[in-house]
Specification:
Order of helices and strands: EEEEHHHHHHHHHEEEEEHHHHHH
Number of strands: 9
CATH superfamily of the largest domain: Intergrase catalytic core
Oligomer: single chain
Structural class: alpha+beta
Number of helices: 15
Strand content: 5-15%
Distance between the termini: 87 Å
Length: 383
């Protein structure tokens, strides 16, 4: 709103004035000002330690009135309200509304909340969306979780997703997330995939009642939560199939049973011929006859806790000489072996219950020792 032309007046003034406004001392000893503009009386909101400071403030207001740039408190309040209505939300405000409306699995919500609270809000929470620049994001990324490459990539990907949604909502024009490859884990940061001999050793060092866990993860690429959620009724030996219809996830209150991670995770997987005798032996030796009996049980008879699985796997992998290989990396091992066997991306995605070809490609790695086999497949250029 443009300032209106006004003129000062001293009509109706009493007390210690200077011909235009008035300064008065309060019981606290502080000084206050009052003045009249266009026959309307105003009282300053601020107080001053000395009479001189109060008179100086009054003189500055008088100068603004004379120049025609003075604005009444009501006009200032209206401009502030208008600016507040038009301003973009802070990152903290936007991310909370984003979390409230998006539909995700409880486990995904838990992971997102941890990344938001630990890494994103502390850095960007108080900044308005249009105040966050590529330079800020790049500097933040360079100091982010250097010793945890996977967590680093996931956190950056989440930030990028949030800003892309803000673009779709027409709140900003461009994303400040410009770090090339920020959402991917570099190959050199991943532990090398194990060899068949190392997997065989790991199986040998796994307790007999848990060996099928390793075969299902390394052979068919089942996730930890999927393999631990299997029941006898999910196995059909006659048809040589395994049905994935549940998933065990860890939330704040502990582990809960839910559905697979993605829609593609609900799937029927064929059992390889070599795995059928192993499954039969496991069912006969370790699984109760009821259809709802868990394939792998914990000490209390329920599903196998993830902590137990991790303890079993860490011990087995260490004895097998592959201490850097995580249990989830057996999924990448399975995908890579399927690709080597000649399966298409679509076929591998169907077996793994994977929706994104991009994620599948991140799973594919070169198995150590295969480099010479690949080299020998190159056609000869000499007679």
């Amino acid at each position: 709103m443009a300032p209106r032309k006004t003129s000062p007046t001293n009509r109706g003034q009493k007390g210690r004035g200077d011909g235009w406004g008035q300064v008065t001392q309060r019981a606290s000893g502080q000084w206050a000002i009052r003045y009249t503009v266009d026959a309307k009386r105003y009282s300053g909101k601020a107080t001053y330690a000395t009479k001189g400071a109060a008179k100086k403030a009054l003189a500055e207001i008088h100068a603004d009135v004379v120049r025609g740039v003075w604005k009444s408190p009501d006009e200032i309040a209206a401009e502030i309200a208008e600016a507040e209505a038009q301003r973009l939300p802070t990152f903290g405000e936007y991310v909370e509304s984003w979390m409230a409306v998006s539909r995700r699995k409880p486990k995904t919500d838990k992971d997102y909340r941890l990344m938001i609270d630990k890494q994103l809000t502390p850095r960007f929470g108080t900044l308005h969306l249009d105040e966050i620049t590529p330079v800020m994001v790049t500097k933040w990324f360079n100091g982010l979780l250097a010793d945890k490459p996977t967590a680093r990539a996931k956190t950056y990907s989440l930030l990028s997703t949030i800003f892309n949604d803000a673009i779709r909502a027409s709140l900003i024009q461009a994303t400040p997330c410009r770090v090339r490859g920020g959402g991917t884990v570099r190959r050199e940061e991943l532990a090398p995939l194990p060899t068949e001999v190392e997997i065989a050793l790991a199986v040998e060092f796994t307790p007999p009642e848990h060996r099928l866990l390793v075969y299902l993860a390394a052979g068919l690429g089942l996730r930890s939560g999927e393999v631990r959620a299997l029941q006898r009724g999910d196995i059909n030996i006659k048809d040589r199939t395994l049905t994935v219809r549940r998933n065990i996830v860890r939330l704040k209150g502990g582990e809960v049973q839910g559905t697979p991670k993605t829609a593609a995770g609900n799937r029927v997987v064929g059992l390889p011929e070599w795995m059928v005798p192993l499954v039969n032996a496991h069912l006969a030796e370790y699984v109760k006859p009821a259809s709802a009996a868990w394939l792998f049980t914990g000490s209390t008879g329920g599903w196998l806790p993830n902590t137990t699985l991790q303890d079993v796997w860490v011990t087995a992998r260490d004895y097998a000489g592959i201490p850097r290989v995580r249990f989830h990396q057996l999924r990448a091992y399975a995908a890579t072996r399927m690709a080597i066997a000649g399966m298409s991306d679509f076929e591998i995605m169907a077996i793994l219950g994977q929706e994104s070809p991009g994620v599948l490609r991140r799973y594919l790695q070169q198995i150590p020792g295969r480099v010479h086999k690949l080299a020998d497949m190159v056609p000869s250029l000499v007679g």
